[in-house]
Design brief:
single chain, 126 residues, mainly alpha, 6 helices, 54% helix, 0% strand, elongated
């Protein structure tokens, strides 16, 4: 992939399919935990005008390395709008990846009784 990106560096002309390939490579690098490679690939597409789908994919990749420092409410409306646009285009899986998932609440098993507290036997008299 590095050769692919390098071959287009001089022209600064990545076409739609080429942008998709660079973003796909960035997704793979994300899955491998290669932050430096992800950053490099995202810099390649940063100055370009991206389709809605490519913008959504780039956003998801950037958020994959979120360290929890950013407030989840920042940009929530824009993110939801982008997810909606992508879903309308038929990319529902990508739209769902964009939306943060709430923490799962603890599960209660209503089919069993709660554990009984063990109490010591009363003291015996002598």
């Amino acid at each position: 992939m590095r050769q692919f990106v390098a071959s287009y560096k001089d022209d600064h002309q990545l076409l739609g399919r080429d942008i998709d390939n660079v973003l796909r490579a960035a997704e793979f690098a994300t899955e491998l935990g290669r932050r430096d490679t992800v950053a490099h690939l995202l810099r390649e597409v940063a100055p370009l005008e991206l389709s809605v789908s490519s913008r959504a994919r780039r956003t998801w990749i950037e958020d994959a390395f979120d360290d929890g420092i950013r407030d989840p409410a920042d940009g929530a409306v824009e993110l939801a709008d982008l997810a909606e646009q992508v879903a309308v285009q038929g990319e529902v899986d990508l739209a769902l990846r964009l939306l943060p998932r709430p923490q799962d609440p603890p599960r209660l098993d209503l089919g069993t009784a709660p554990p009984q507290r063990q109490t010591p036997p009363p003291p015996t008299r002598r």
